[in-house]
Backbone:
């Protein structure tokens, strides 16, 4: 696999010029000491880790995979040392509460760090990624005692965390989980049950693992309103903070998977394991969901990271590999063939990748910025507006970034021809690793249902308004030379508005409509949102080209996106308008 | 992985009722003794092999993979025995010349056999598949002596074949190959060079391997018009037909790949290996291409087979797995959840799979029928028309069946949620195995270039006419109850006609247009062709439902296809109309 180079310039362009995050930071008490120079320095530190330690190890780690023997999991060579470096750099707690040692950085910066970590090695990124999710959940919902006992060790990366939701019979449908929590006399609970697909549920990177486990109390109401959340450490922690006896949670096996071979995906058996309630009884799901907005963007960024890496590799290859002649004579006539990049279809593939990668970087930063405003803003109106955008965009970020991320990695493999199918080039690993991000943390179908059902229909379309308003603000100040593209954005936005209205009008008459058109609707929102991001980036880039030549492509790529990718929305409209009709003609036996 | 069940009923429906192939056979001297009962019996024999021997071994064979040690390749457990069974059943020579022991069956039947073989195990299918291609090439282009020496042994499956085209620096661009062929005194040639990605180039299934090798004679003109074809056996064959000394061709290594782990993908080193010219000097590429129409449909069917298997698994899973509640109360209220199949989005996924699988089966049989007419018909007009359809549809069959096949396997993985990512369920293997079919035997981008460049633009659109005429014949006899769908087909066909005209009008002014819009154009043709196939199947199925209840879904699935899949064409039009403009704004350094 080729060396990975973090796109530092593009990350800075997005943060500084497009979204002007520094202006936000200056407003927010907790971020007022942060400036762009510091942010750039931080990104550069992360980039060094990603480029020199993590990325070079990813191919070998995939080949070696994780090993399971006698209840213990061994991670690939280099993982333990690299995790130690990551922890010592403070990266496990990059967005975590400074009170417990976290860096307390905004998500807009963390989004860049996460992208580079995932581009370097998704498997490796998961050990700290899940820990960050657990940290956030504990910080927001656990009592002071639990916080004092666990947070500092987790934020410093001495211990890691896991999120234990899925059971063999219960994936998407957490309401039917069977894990039980029975009160002990000392205020703790005895947790019993089997959890599967637990990322980082067991491994050898650190001494202790803090599991956050969904289980049902004896008096729990049925369904999803009867689920509670518990903290269950692998080793019990003694008064002085040192590790005590082994708790009754053990890894029964690990999964053999299509990708993320170096990530331990565990079956965990809880046999009366000692745990402590986090948050209120029966309120476990909402507690889990407070960190979902952060986590789901993070999973979206996994798709983006893999896509960014694949694009970089494909671009290198298309410039180096000589094959065939372009339609026009080139400067390569003394060589036996032209580089791939002269061919129209190769350019189509590369630009599709570039449009999704750079558009995705802009989009994830846009969502990250809204998360930051929602978290740090004092002004209630500003906060509420950002929260609304986050509500709307979170499922889009998770699903659209991972679906387009997967598409990009598949294209990036295609650019390599037969070599893309061979392991040594690394392009196929990116496909295999990116694939899981469309599935876990709520399948992309579930994200679509969340978007159209809970968010759009649930608000009677109100939640769409802040996005439409942001788009309108941009449309009000068109850039000369992009008149056609501004018109395309205006028309696409109008189509989104129309389709949204049509679907909402049918919800009362058709109980199946939401789940029947949700995926196509999410794509519609995604393509329009990316169109907005692309034109926003183009408008900002255009006057800067003279001083920063690398921005020359932004307007051109925006034009490409509008001409070649955005028209895909016209392929979605027919399906959405069909509603549930075509999906419910078949009896179950007629499939 | 679940048991595989060959869709015998659907295959018979397609052959007998939709395409009425029996009527063709009766006309053709060489097929006049074949009837549907025999065909059904043959399909049933193949089905037993696929279901009981090959499919059950596929998961283990993927895990074990092929091994390379000291120049020899070991195939997974069971492969040798299963290949022997396949050979003894006459399946290696299923379409081969009866003069040398072939079954001489038409491609329309072979297409069903190939689908089941690929559904059972794509890796396994390749050993006989490449042999069939080599058989055809030798039969059509080699001299009588070579035919007498090699064909019978290959057709009986005692020896296998390989096709040696690619070199490290020359994949798509065969004009720049460097392998040399120098004349020996005895009329043979000494072949020297390195070939890569050679499927079945070395293995332990049989005693001898017959390599067909592209190389350049000393006096060869530059480029693709200077390539000759040679037959190079692994072991030289003595006068009495027994094996003599080892030839100078050796396997240097095998590739480690994303999928088809049980297929040996070899680097072959030719060190003055003894070979014999096949066909005319410098006419090696055309000789290879005579079998390409057959082979490319065969590769398309690999995508179809993987898709068909994935659909079968996903449907079983969606009926068994209980998760969540549907919008309506179901009969499952006493259970803790409803089966997945009640959910709209799961139905969307299943029906998308079904539409591509059954539509693909119809389409591949349609193309197979045209190959048979082109091969067997006496009437020159009938023959020429079929040849034109084959020319047009071959790149569509290869690319569209593999791209939709891959899409289907990815959806089939998604239906399983997290379990789709785990190896033991088999869904992820189908994704990995299907992926290669989009790449080899000419990448799908190259297929698109062939379609739009050589076929459509090369004929000034004439080659499209027979397809348009077949569609018009159908449109002239609409089925009551499908008025909307017939109108959709008519409009889509008109759009195809319009777009084709627009592109042709621009070819003179824009040298890059073909390669810039070819992929989207191929999709446009593919979606319209599948729409035609679906309505054709619906028209035939409708009156038969009473006697064959399993056909009840055909009209419904046709309606689904027209409402939910065909509209994708409207997402392609904008990109095609943009031409090459958006692809050539970027300088090479601006990507």
Residues:
């Amino acid at each position: 696999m080729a060396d990975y180079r973090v796109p530092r310039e593009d990350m800075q362009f997005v943060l500084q010029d497009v979204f002007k995050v520094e202006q936000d930071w200056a407003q927010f008490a907790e971020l007022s000491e942060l400036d762009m120079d510091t942010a750039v320095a931080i990104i550069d530190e992360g980039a060094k880790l990603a480029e020199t330690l993590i990325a070079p190890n990813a191919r070998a780690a995939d080949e070696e995979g994780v090993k399971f023997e006698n209840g213990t999991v061994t991670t690939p060579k280099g993982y333990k040392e690299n995790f130690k470096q990551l922890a010592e750099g403070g990266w496990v707690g990059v967005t975590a509460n400074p009170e417990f040692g976290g860096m307390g950085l905004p998500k807009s910066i963390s989004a860049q760090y996460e992208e580079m970590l995932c581009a370097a090695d998704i498997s490796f990124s998961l050990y700290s990624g899940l820990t960050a999710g657990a940290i956030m959940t504990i910080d927001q919902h656990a009592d002071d005692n639990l916080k004092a006992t666990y947070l500092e060790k987790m934020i410093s990366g001495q211990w890691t965390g896991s999120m234990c939701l899925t059971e063999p019979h219960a994936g998407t449908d957490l309401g039917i989980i069977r894990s039980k929590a029975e009160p002990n006399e000392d205020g703790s609970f005895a947790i019993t049950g089997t959890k599967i697909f637990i990322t980082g549920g067991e491994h050898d990177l650190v001494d202790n693992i803090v599991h956050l486990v969904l289980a049902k109390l004896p008096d729990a109401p049925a369904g999803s309103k009867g689920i509670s959340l518990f903290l269950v450490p692998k080793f019990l922690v003694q008064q002085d903070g040192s590790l005590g006896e082994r708790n009754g949670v053990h890894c029964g096996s690990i999964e053999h998977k299509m990708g993320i071979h170096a990530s331990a995906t565990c079956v965990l058996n809880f046999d009366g394991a000692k745990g402590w309630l986090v948050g209120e009884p029966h309120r476990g799901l909402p507690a889990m969901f407070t960190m979902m907005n952060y986590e789901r963007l993070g999973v979206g960024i996994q798709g983006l990271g893999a896509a960014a890496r694949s694009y970089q590799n494909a671009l290198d290859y298309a410039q180096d590999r000589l094959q065939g002649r372009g339609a026009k004579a080139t400067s390569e006539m003394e060589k036996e063939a032209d580089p791939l990049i002269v061919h129209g279809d190769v350019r189509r593939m590369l630009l599709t990748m570039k449009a999704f990668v750079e558009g995705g970087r802009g989009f994830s930063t846009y969502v990250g910025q809204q998360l930051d405003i929602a978290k740090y803003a004092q002004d209630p109106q500003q906060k509420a507006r950002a929260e609304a955008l986050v509500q709307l965009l979170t499922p889009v970020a998770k699903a659209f970034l991972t679906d387009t991320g997967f598409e990009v990695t598949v294209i990036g493999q295609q650019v390599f021809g037969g070599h893309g199918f061979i392991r040594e080039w690394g392009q196929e690993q990116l496909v295999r690793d990116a694939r899981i991000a469309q599935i876990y943390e709520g399948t992309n179908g579930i994200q679509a249902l969340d978007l159209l059902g809970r968010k759009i229909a649930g608000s009677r379309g109100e939640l769409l308004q802040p996005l439409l308003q942001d788009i309108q603000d941009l449309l009000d100040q068109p850039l000369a030379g992009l008149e056609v593209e501004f018109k395309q954005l205006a028309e696409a936005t109008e189509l989104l508005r129309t389709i949204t209205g049509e679907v909402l009008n049918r919800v009362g008459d058709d109980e199946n409509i939401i789940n029947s058109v949700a995926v196509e609707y999410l794509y519609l929102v995604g393509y329009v949102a990316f169109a907005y991001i692309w034109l926003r980036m183009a408008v900002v880039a255009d006057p800067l080209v003279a001083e920063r030549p690398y921005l020359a492509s932004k307007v051109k790529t925006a034009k490409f996106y509008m001409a070649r990718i955005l028209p895909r929305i016209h392929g979605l409209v027919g399906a959405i308008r069909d509603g549930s009709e075509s999906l419910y003609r078949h009896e179950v036996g007629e499939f």
About this structure: Residues 292-583 of chain B form a domain with the Butyryl-CoA Dehydrogenase, subunit A; domain 3 fold (CATH 1.20.140.10). The longest strand of chain B covers residues 265-278.
